[in-house]
Amino acid sequence: MEAIFSSPFFGITLSILAYQVGLLCKKKWQLDIVNPLVIAVTIIIMVLKIFDISFEQYNAGGAYISLMLAPVTAALGVAIYQQWQTLKDNWLPIVVGVVVGSLSSVWSIRILSQMFGLQPQLAVSLLAKSVTTPIAVELSQQLGGIEAVTVAGVIFTGIFGAVFSPLLIKLLKIKNPIARGVAIGTSSHGLGTSKALEIGKVEGAMSGIAMGLAGVVTVIIILLL
């Protein structure tokens, strides 16, 4: 069994099967809160815990799936290109929305960290929770944060955005597709953008743009603090 768990095929197979279960659950219940990614992550964690499998063993295959993140992110360029005229006509509100959203994200963490008395190292580890993982990890390292805490914060933020963004959009009655996309991309990076693409083409394109801009803006904000 040890040889099976250590094989790269184990991590790949487990990830694919867990996500397929998530898709089946989503198809059956048709609820936004039933997110395939959340279900897949839960299944994977349970399997690793039950069979006492280390993350290193799982990641021998899981790392190959992570390699697909770059091509998938690059593929967002197609959606952005298709909405190029919309971007040109609305560049100012998009930029303002991203800046305001990024400021809100960073300052909310600072305020909450002070309220709950978090240690400075933990606080800086969470400052970049709303940007994509590579940027967040690099910022955390430069600020002396804990990389594992940063990654956990980024993943939780992304999953939360993917699950609850449709509900919040309905609750707040946000009709404008550009506003929807900017809000999702700024607050919940790639995972949120994947949900924005499901909501609509304009939302997906604007979310992809906002995700990239939010990374740059957040870096500037944090370094100026």
Q: Can you walk through the features of this model?
A:
The protein is mostly helical. It contains 12 helices and no strands. Helix 5 packs across helix 12 and helix 9 crosses helix 10. The model has no long low-confidence stretch (mean pLDDT 87).
Give me the count of strands.
Answer: 0
Taken as a percent bin, the fraction of beta residues is: under 5%
Oligomer: single chain
Overall pLDDT confidence:
87
Largest sheet: none
Catalogue the unreliable spans: none
Q: Report the structural category.
A: mainly alpha
State Rg: 18 Å
Helix percentage: over 70%
What gap, in angstroms, lies between the N and C termini?
50 Å
Shape descriptor: globular
Work out the helix count.
12
- SSE sequence, one letter per element: HHHHHHHHHHHH
Considering the chains and any ligands shown, give keywords for the structure:
225 residues, mainly alpha, 12 helices
Summary?
The chain has 12 helices and no strands. With 225 residues, the chain is mainly alpha-helical.
List the helices and strands and how they pair.
Elements: H1 2-6, H2 8-29, H3 36-50, H4 55-66, H5 69-82, H6 84-89, H7 91-115, H8 120-126, H9 133-143, H10 147-172, H11 177-199, H12 201-224
